[in-house]
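retry 2 of 3: previous attempt timed out while embedding 2-acetamido-2-deoxy-beta-D-glucopyranose. Reduced batch size to 1 and resubmitted. Inputs unchanged:
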Amino acid sequence: MLNKASDFLCWLVALFLSPLVKDKELTTVSMGIFEEIILNILADKMKFTYEIIPPSDILTLGYLQPNGSWTGTTGQLQRKEVDMCVTTSAPASSKTPVQDISYPVVYVDSAIVIPFPKEETKWIVTSTFKNKEASTNPTLKKIADNMRKHPERRILNAFTVDDISTIVKEEAALVLVKSTAESFIENSYKINKECRVTLAEKTFFSRPQTFSYPKHSPIVKTVDYNLLLLQQAGLIQYAEKRSAVPYNRCSVSEAKKIAANKVVPLKLKDVAGAFSILILGFILSFILLFIECIFKKMSTK
Ligand SMILES: *[C@@H]1O[C@H](CO)[C@@H](O)[C@H](O)[C@H]1NC(C)=O
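retry 2 succeeded.
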């Protein structure tokens, strides 16, 4: 394909998730498989190689500083240090001046990570989100308002902690993309060997997730066109399935099911009856054998 995009032989790509970011020091969460699959298909089809440049300041999408500079991957795009950011994110109007966004790659549900399994806490927390108008977005607005009211409670390093249960404490909830939350929970389970956090049963507000480019990037059109082709070919769904956590063992309903079907190990007293019948049988057959021997001896005389 001869077009603008082929001017970039090696694209510099912003991303902060492993396994694409191979440096184990940088991030501990095992996400990024979805991005890796999509990026590799794009690179293969559009004939480019790429180099991953993680943001050097903060391993997130970044936030706006008072002087107008962005941090994180958005900062990389603003400074035009990279050709593209492949960490999928929800488009934010606040970033429009510094980045262009791609065709929606996936739609994701937001989920709420809560401590496990405090049922009462669960319902108090989720009731705040009971607004069901998912298309308009009062839920996110409410959350955003809350975050503005309590900026000190914002967690900027959620992606870089080993164990999500260390930041989701009593009376607190963390709103995350569902698949991301499931990865965190799986990670936490592996570390603690128990479920310390879980997801509130209901998800809310399905949102499009996009890649992003520096403002007025020449590659937007071709990449978008190829993303559309990938979607029509079912490759996006394939990547989603490949990268999903197989099942959430810390889901409350799952845990209940496991408890209900729990296999109780057999104890000696459960099988004592069988053993006593067996022993009785041995004794009886021994006596019979003995009697038979006596009769045989008597008849041969
Ligand atoms: C904006 O502020 C940050 C930190 O306060 C600084 O690192 C950055 O260089 C500043 N940007 C500009 C364009 O002055």
